[in-house]
Amino acid sequence: MDPTVRKAQTSDGRVYTLSDTVGFVRHLPHQLVEAFRSTLEEVADSDLIVHVVDGSHPDPESQLLAVRKVLAEIGADQVPEMVVINKVDATDPMTLARLSHAEPGAVAVSARTGQGIAELRASIEHALPHPAVEVELTVPYDRGDLVARVHAEGEIVATRHDEDGTHLRARVPAGLAAELRAAVRAEASSAQ
Predict the structure, then answer these.
(1) pLDDT in tens for each of the 192 residues of the chain?
(2) Domains of the chain from N-terminus onward
(3) Contact (Cβ atoms closer than 8 angstroms) between residue 80 and residue 127
């Protein structure tokens, strides 16, 4: 029942963690339901829930409701949710139409054929938050560690290599913005 965690990256360079929790199974013994809920504890701190439902299941709506009930019980019902209808290659067209109508913005995919996977990636990328602070500064070459962190934690808008260092225009988390500004100030102080 442990989740699988993978590192992923958006096309604009933002790194995020994708945690694949176990599939939800109804009518489990109470002990197993509690174990399943424990795998979801981290979900309440997530930026996005990608809720995959089996479109070929006889009653996918009840699957959606059952998972949402558990999400509400663990306090994750306020996390933005993206519904993904999987197995569209095996889903009855009427069921797919019904689900698509009931879940506006749902992405239809087939893990088997690859149908809709590019759209899913684009939708996830669009839904993920962007770093909060925009910075434009020149990072000294001896602080390549900070440039690497901007690439790993932020969004690069523009970059060029100047005589004094790597000039960056980027969106980064507030803590990293402060570290970058401190490094630039320290370099300016030592140059005087």
Answers:
(1) 566 788 888 887 777 888 877 665 555 566 666 666 666 677 888 889 999 999 999 999 999 998 888 888 888 899 999 999 999 999 999 999 999 999 999 999 999 999 999 999 999 999 988 888 999 999 999 999 999 999 888 888 899 999 999 999 999 999 999 999 999 988 888 877
(2) 4-127 (3.40.50.300), 133-191 (3.30.70)
(3) yes
